[in-house]
User: Fold these one by one.
Assistant:
Number 1:
Amino acid sequence: MSPENKILETLSENTCFGGVQGVYRHASAVCGCDMTFAVYLPPAAQEGPVPVLWYLSGLTCTHENAMTKAGAQAWAAAAGIALVFPDTSPRGEGIADDDAFDLGQGAGFYVDATEPPWAPNFSMWSYIVEELPELLFAEFPLAEGAQGITGHSMGGHGALTLALRLPDRFRSVSAFAPIANPSASDWGRRQLTAYLGADEAAWSDHDASLLMRDRGWKGPVLIDQGTGDQFYDLLRPGALMEAMAARRQGGSFRFQPGYDHSYFFVASFMRDHVEFHAEALWA
Amino acid sequence: MSPENKILETLSENTCFGGVQGVYRHASAVCGCDMTFAVYLPPAAQEGPVPVLWYLSGLTCTHENAMTKAGAQAWAAAAGIALVFPDTSPRGEGIADDDAFDLGQGAGFYVDATEPPWAPNFSMWSYIVEELPELLFAEFPLAEGAQGITGHSMGGHGALTLALRLPDRFRSVSAFAPIANPSASDWGRRQLTAYLGADEAAWSDHDASLLMRDRGWKGPVLIDQGTGDQFYDLLRPGALMEAMAARRQGGSFRFQPGYDHSYFFVASFMRDHVEFHAEALWA
């Protein structure tokens, strides 16, 4: 990035699998604070715009967890696609927070909060849907017409809800152990009440199982879920499976024997996910 | 591990690429404190003992850095070899330390200290050469006759010095950006003086360039060094190259354009290293 660039501040850039893993900071208008994100550009980006796979992270994560622990760059380099790792919430001194690890900073749940004290800053839906893409496609060699999305846990929830509601934007969607049915789970009801209020009608746009049952998805879907996941009951994979079955949704819902909720699980299947997206994005 | 096992305490075990990434703690006699290490067992270990690749880490690292950031499990699973990630020094309240990040805890330099205050606990040479192997080959399905060794930075120094001095034990050796000539570098002279005393004669057994020039290595060697490494001058790769040239040592010394000293560099070439070792270990 040019040092003259006032929009983006480059925090780091490292050569990685022949491409560049960068971390950048910018002033976010919709979140009302500085936001940090990471972009991996594969070697192919030196020749021109490349497809892009969004990776949304889970509770407590920043841009950094998947960037350092998921091993995605190896496969993205080979497939010639870029990776974007956004943060999971607004952050900082003046930003609302909660003592619970699964509410407030690090737990934005990819919604635009309407309730106090969250409403002024917790606008992760608009951040991921509007503000960050506008910045990315202006500043990086990314092909706006070739976007896929994936994520882990709360980020799997984000990936599925974004794709299901924006089918014209995303060509492909997958998820690792997503929070699949938040409006019926303790990983969801508390947060959706806090961010969106007690009226559950406002929640249905942010529940992958409800959206899947209502709308389906235009192409195949890939979901991986570990059978040894310590949060299995909170994730409610069964609700999403039922929705896919009811909808006759094409795709694969894979139960991976023994795997837990950690990045050792995510890394183990990252190749499959990157190649799944690359096939759709390069088509 | 069995809960009855009093020698090893299991801190965590995660399914990873079809195998198991475990973290264990034991009471170390030579270090005089509890020591933590990680072992990755590939799926092939379910059938019987597998070859093992030791990975020695660099300054400030524990067993955890390479375990989570190097992406090595993917390739080890495919190659059917185990990985061992030891810690880099003794640790804890009663253990000597220094304010500098490159001396004391996290900076054992793979030597047996003879000088105060380090001598009572800083015995990483004996720990890696004697105590930890004895434990590992008793407790895990590892083939003692098929060992390779690699490492990063200070761990590259450790890998090279161990292999050069124990050629009958290790079948293969490689390194990522090793501290290649510590007796002529600020990454070495200070630490070797502190641990071994001012008499430089005691240092020569812990300098890969001197050992290489003196003894050579029985097989091919693989070294990767980033040209953008921020510690290039401290690492002294040229000294090791000269020693290899003088010795007519077989192997590859690869300068990787643009790569720095980070795990983004290590991960980018981990596949090559694991496959290099696997070829020797399965031969």
Note: The mean pLDDT of chain A is 96.
Number 2:
Amino acid sequence: MKLMRSWVESANDPETQFPLNNLPYGVFSVDGDDPRCGVAIGDMILDVAAMEATGLLRIGDDPVLDVPFWNEVMELGPQAWAQLRLMLFGFLVEGAETKGSVAQYLIPQARARLHMPLLVAEYTDFYAGMQHAKNMGAILRGSPDLPANWLHIPIGYNGRASSVVVSGTDIHRPLGQTKAPDAAMPSFGPSKRVDIELEMGAIVGTGSTLGQPITTAEAAEMIFGYVLLNDWSARDIQGWEYQPLGPFQGKAFGTSISPWIVTAAALAPFRCPAPAREVPLLPYLQEKEPGFYNVTLEVLMQPAGAAQASTIARTNYNRVYYSAAQQLTHHAVCGCEMNAGDLLGSGTISGPTKAEFGSLMELSWGGKEPITLDGGETRSFIEDGDRLTLRGHAQGDGYRVGFGDCTGRILPALKMPGWE
Amino acid sequence: MKLMRSWVESANDPETQFPLNNLPYGVFSVDGDDPRCGVAIGDMILDVAAMEATGLLRIGDDPVLDVPFWNEVMELGPQAWAQLRLMLFGFLVEGAETKGSVAQYLIPQARARLHMPLLVAEYTDFYAGMQHAKNMGAILRGSPDLPANWLHIPIGYNGRASSVVVSGTDIHRPLGQTKAPDAAMPSFGPSKRVDIELEMGAIVGTGSTLGQPITTAEAAEMIFGYVLLNDWSARDIQGWEYQPLGPFQGKAFGTSISPWIVTAAALAPFRCPAPAREVPLLPYLQEKEPGFYNVTLEVLMQPAGAAQASTIARTNYNRVYYSAAQQLTHHAVCGCEMNAGDLLGSGTISGPTKAEFGSLMELSWGGKEPITLDGGETRSFIEDGDRLTLRGHAQGDGYRVGFGDCTGRILPALKMPGWE
């Protein structure tokens, strides 16, 4: 597909993340006013909340953009999503007759503060990166063999929705319980092994019913869009706590998402084939139309005071073994009720070479091989003040579809009240 | 403490679960009208939503009982909780001068349908039953040794809030992926090992801030009340999925809670000492005032068509090794934001003898020793049509504090759309 030209000139720049082909959904505020729904176009934001309020834009019978999140749009379902996308396209396409009335609703992104684009109903984190699973096995258990169920089940665990924050939110280093392999007793204090996980997040737009399984075709229709997702992880807390019931507090101090939700429709031109299957998937997980996408991904690290960020990894969303629709199907097939606003993390995305590893745990091989940044600093894990940033885009013919940066700094741990 | 007498005569019956000492919070409807907040007293429900609407009852500045859940009361905090309890006591105590105006707000429980008493924000399930942990180790891993972290960490995992239902809701047998030990490949279909877990649930009433750790004293103040909780489990799905990231779909098809939230204040007279510690707890988990309670618990099973239910287990909430306040502290200490309506399952409560085991997995020892019910039926796990019921009460001097039954039937699995 080629660039679709807009009368918003900055949207026609081949380097912008937000051409007319994209039209991602976010929530923004200007000068401290109330957050509201907006759509990114070039270097501007279209204030669709104001357009709905003045009657210029209407989807469905009742207002859905009068709240500072996109969940009410999600709940309208795929037909309304397609209708909204067409309306926005009509407003912003080159030569649109409505340009005169729409232009007043454009606000420069440079003036806006971005907020959480959705209310996260529940958050689930999957484990669909095969190279990541092999690396973690090799580092933690001494063997790169996949868990016995890995090629059959899109393995996942429930995460903590209350810890999901929008890009730009700084994260305090977590306190927790850890135990060194040679220590007799565990100890309590700030994590020494704070890490990132490079992931994509899929946002469930329409729900399912408790007790009622769903098919992969239904699951694909339920997905509203995608975000970049950094599942901050405390490897020392996680390592001591995770057996037998899985990750818990090592993953609950923060998960960052990009400010813009890129719709499934905007990503559709970038679908790519499913990976080769080492063993056949059970029929309930098979997809007629594979839900994999070609999205290049990048991780940047910038210590406090460093002149610029260093790229520490580059990989692609198409490295995952299970699509979001397959993960959603597995999630709901037992009868688990899914709801608008559920967020599904893909799992850490790592490619086959070190340059493609999506976590510091892998890049520094469990801390044994520190990486060197462009400014000469070395890092095994994240130090206080370090800024970590995820970037991603799908590359079209003369245009890009991006998510905006997913960034955050690690701040020092907060103290327990009454403790020294 | 002795029975406090009410002018509602049925509340003075030593067998009632709802004397004036209790005053638990629920949500009810009559004849299909809108669900609303109520308080159980004897065999009646006090329609506190209507009392607030007419101005007879007011807590705080704004209405909080005009919604069909107790979360808005929770958010007012402990002082308001104490104030409400005193007001209710004043309305219902024997000799109350307001009896004439309050009596019209009493509705027979026999006429009411009970609904979810809260909006569950997020649901976390812990693992605080030591005998249960030992039994599961022995059955699943061939050794009753506790996991290395068990005596140090109140182990927990995030569950699925969307699957939490009120007592009386029937549950469909889940579909899922399982693999027999001798099978080459997994298969897909209805679970053959559906089980219960006898638990108590603690309800978080006031929240914490992302990044900010809390103390056990703060955690104790944050707990609004307690419910009975049955964490329905599919042991065959769980067994195949749970390594390395913990339970997921084997626990996501339903979790039932009792219809009445018994407040922490009502349970306060039943506090009991903490269990002996085999190793000292880290300071952040130590409690000045241990949050353990003497609550007798019972599990009943009734096959479809059976004349009556058989009691299959009897134990006590005081069997747990970690209090809800300790679990909440651990949950939040990494900086995880907690919110009003968060539900914390205690973990399966099992005592040292078979008569006290809180799951069929333990009672039938992994299915190898089926139990025999009073009517002669045998069961290793739950069959379609079986009704399982949890009951619990704290025994005072001439009175009881109860939760109402936590009951549900297992119905046949629903089919995948388009599948045979």
Note: Chain B touches chain A through 72 residues (CB under 8 Å).
Number 3:
Amino acid sequence: MQTPPRVLTVAGSDSGGGAGIQADLKTMLALGTHGMSVLTAVTAQNSLGVQGAWELPAEAVRAQFRSVADDIGVQAVKTGMLASAELVRTVAELLAGPAAAGVPVVVDPVGVSKHGDTLLAASALDAVRTALLPTATVATPNLDEVAQLTGVRVAAAEEMPKAAEAILAFGPRWVLVKGGHLPAGDAVDLLTDGDARHWLRAPRHDNRHTHGTGCTLAAALAARLAHGDTVPQAAAAAKEYVTGAIAAGFRLGAGIGPVDHGWRLRGAR
Amino acid sequence: MQTPPRVLTVAGSDSGGGAGIQADLKTMLALGTHGMSVLTAVTAQNSLGVQGAWELPAEAVRAQFRSVADDIGVQAVKTGMLASAELVRTVAELLAGPAAAGVPVVVDPVGVSKHGDTLLAASALDAVRTALLPTATVATPNLDEVAQLTGVRVAAAEEMPKAAEAILAFGPRWVLVKGGHLPAGDAVDLLTDGDARHWLRAPRHDNRHTHGTGCTLAAALAARLAHGDTVPQAAAAAKEYVTGAIAAGFRLGAGIGPVDHGWRLRGAR
């Protein structure tokens, strides 16, 4: 058997299985890659919110990364919940080091959960801006994260280029600003490197079961980059995958259910 | 969308993505279920062995389990690496409690990794025997774990019923004794509840990339039980799935590569 492309997520665990490394690993399998993971934190979480969180020590994050990078190697990395300033700095150092040289990095600058639970300490914002974002091939903030990181508030799609520029100023090569939180119309995202502008549009699905959307999009982007796609190709493929997953999102528990990572696999199982 | 059957793994994390909750979550997706996870420990691990391990506090294990059980509910549970006597007892208590009443439980009594690294403290063996195994609908020991738990050593397939009886004496409803470590011939497993005997045979694949085999089999068993299979049906389906995954196992790193959890999904991705 040929080895599939290897993709690493550096993120937190969602016990409910809809977001975090669970969403990432499922997405990576669904997109034909070998998913691996560096755990940064473990949450007790379900459809109603986050009931508890336990951070891993920086030493454990480094050791997991070294185990993966030194023996197996990676063809793309995605970061999600990093919890604290120390972990943000630790991960940024690893991504700036030789093990990740030439490897595309997708940074999902996770700030709060779908329920508004804090997944990143306020004291970590500066490390995200100055240490983590410069390592990113693509950063994938939603509009809340844009506001948190840059102060730029976006109320309509035509203001998204301004948000993109503010993020690009921190040093990522590309930014995918996600407009899904805008009030109406298509779900529109803007991908830009400061020169090219790609508007990614998808019909907005009337489905409240969207837990894990952000993780899934970033993981799909990383998986497609590991397959060798260009950034615009990978972003378009990731948007298509997550749109299908949202359309197939299902009820789970009493609150917000997850997107369906297996929507493309039906019939094969 | 209809909610798929919900399956929970209570196990450790393998950063390399081939075993542990990574193998379980991938298997659960491949078999059409919604996978969830309670992390008990985080390992830094690759194709060469286990380079580090960090246990979660018992309180974090309880909180994750409660988040999943109280809001989402489970239709099958699988346990893997539980690390310490305290965590074994914590998990056994949760599985004996009301949240898991009537829910099939697959106990994979993980003792050592494929490389011989210890994943369960010697002081935890008694808790596995007296607290965990009685909660099992099916226990899935390999021959090393049988020897560790019961003292019974098996050198040939005809001695497997004796091993099964010794495990059943601790109280699981069924036992699947895995003969994969026997020196030659077909890979033969014995499933029995003390009355019925089902011999599960599969051709032995000449493939050294078998990391995650045990996790994958137990997770597949749990997934099929969540779909409503009987134990013999689920064991046969799980054996078929893991046999295909071993046949498709691939090189990853310098040592033992993983089985391919996506072997049935090709063409759909």
Note: The helical segments of chain A are 20-30, 58-72, 85-96, 125-132, 143-150, 160-168, 213-226, 231-247.
Number 4:
Amino acid sequence: MNGAVGFGVFSIDGDEPRVGFRVGQGVLDLAASGFSSELSEPSLNAFLASGRRTWEAVLGRAVELVEGGHDVVPLEDATVHLPFEVADYVDFYSSLEHATNLGRLFRPDSDPLLPNWRHLPIGYHGRAGTVVVSGTPVVRPRGQSKEPDDSAPRFGPSRRLDIELELGFVVGVPSVLGTALPPAAFRDHVFGVVLVNDWSARDIQAWEYQPLGPFLGKSFATSISGWITPLALLEDRFVAPPVQDPEPLPHLRIAGNWALDIELEVELSDTVVSRTNARGLYWTMPQQLAHATSNGASVRTGDLFASGTISGPDTGSEGSLIELTRNGARPIGVGDGSTRTFLEDGDEVVLRGRAGNVELGEVRGTILPARP
Amino acid sequence: MNGAVGFGVFSIDGDEPRVGFRVGQGVLDLAASGFSSELSEPSLNAFLASGRRTWEAVLGRAVELVEGGHDVVPLEDATVHLPFEVADYVDFYSSLEHATNLGRLFRPDSDPLLPNWRHLPIGYHGRAGTVVVSGTPVVRPRGQSKEPDDSAPRFGPSRRLDIELELGFVVGVPSVLGTALPPAAFRDHVFGVVLVNDWSARDIQAWEYQPLGPFLGKSFATSISGWITPLALLEDRFVAPPVQDPEPLPHLRIAGNWALDIELEVELSDTVVSRTNARGLYWTMPQQLAHATSNGASVRTGDLFASGTISGPDTGSEGSLIELTRNGARPIGVGDGSTRTFLEDGDEVVLRGRAGNVELGEVRGTILPARP
């Protein structure tokens, strides 16, 4: 298969939303193609909950139909909806390069990487209710901020609106409260992956985030792909992760190839401003899931776990503007000859991911001016 | 009316869960008493979404029936369920005394109150999927921790398991993404309040919380009342809040009596170990809601916003054990003649609230040993 592949929810001409399987520029209407009842709902949640055996049977049959020339709906005729009801949304901080870059900017007077960072995948909960599907415009948030020289905070439209390029995984099969999941349980619980743009208002975030973490600097919107790419289609993209030093505690150890070789890029105003790869993430997805449940917390169908910003070691491989522009000190050029530090009204951002022949669903969003 | 009053979900002998209106030790079965279809669901969400006019009509009719001697189910025969599907869970940090006490313990070398605290209600997102109803046992969480003298972190059962006494409000009517709610919109969106025990593993929290805030130190369980007390029953308990200095920015200003005069107590092992009052909270509920949406984030039916630990200025009015025992340095006595610093396996904690004649639904939980 070629092009973007994944399961999502679509409608045509205002009809009832239904589950579809996208391959490239066509969408197979699963509800209308003789699939089981999990696929007749207006969200993927029932299918996600059905478990690995069903996932793989449905995928196999869907691929067979598409490759056999079954009728598909042209993507351009479809309205794409949020593919699943997001239960809880967790955002990690799993890129060593990103955590180091951010630490340097936010805490210039201390060690950029905090002492806990190499021992556990740092993460926090985000707002599930404001996760939106690719294509949804993003209204520039207002908020409180205070520059170092200001005597008091101000309230107004964010002046440092940023993106974060992330890869998220989606839980299908729930776990039981009070029971930890080992890293090896990952494939039985997780259905697939989506690209995530964790829009971030850096001025709001900088003023609010101590001591309890990001809140309004992030909660105004988080965009995800309209199509979940099943892990089963990425089998040949699992590669060795970076070496972890020190070795993680036993509950976070897992042998094998658990990094995902997915080439990523960020386009801003028709210009690719960053290219990187998800395989460089220090903490792997099975470790993230094991950590999140190590205290007995349960996961539910529809839980979304995002990687945190994916930045590589090289200039031009950073997954956010605050890193790419060194907090605005080094503007970057975009296609029309202008430059950017942070996002301007009207800017369109597109995240793309490619895993060999398979593309992930893109994440597209345009900035609208702040509301009065 | 006297005793605990509120709307919840109950079942009898394994029957279908249904909506009930509790007064004292009796529960009016609303689905069986001629109410509208919103009240025939196995959760309160549809009723919560129906809006203030319906809330008040249903409350009026339910009170009329109970006072008229309508048959009620004895509470002791009912199994009480989580009263609503929690959408997003936000936890604030609105008690000046608590924030000061915790700042002193967690950051002994700097100003206990951070510079942002008096300008906005600090908050963060918690895990909605692990909110449980009063009576649910709480398994002692495992997690990573590192004492200052340890050379490396350890993983094991929390040794500093704590409670947090909080008051939460529950959103009924959703708002629109991209649009802020002014503080004055509070009563049109918020249905009522519940007591909240935000169980906290202090050792896990201390090691993980920088820079992105609490995660596994909190996410293993959060207990709430089985009964939501409608704001309409608390009209005469709204009182003047503490003076705010400096005056908040315009979007957080609201005139009038928005503090809630609710007497609170914490019982541990049959001993009342803390008595305080919600009226002392520095940030009011309408300010919390306005802040949370000030960046355009939307709220949904079932959103739970908790106050953060409610501590008063006096010894014995602190809402957590870490404060009551000065981080374990001053054990407190409990009923059987023993002492406590943090929670031991088998300990039962009960939170109670009283607003004049009306009681809030209690929050009860017993600690089970960590799972192997």
Note: Chain B has a mean pLDDT of 96.
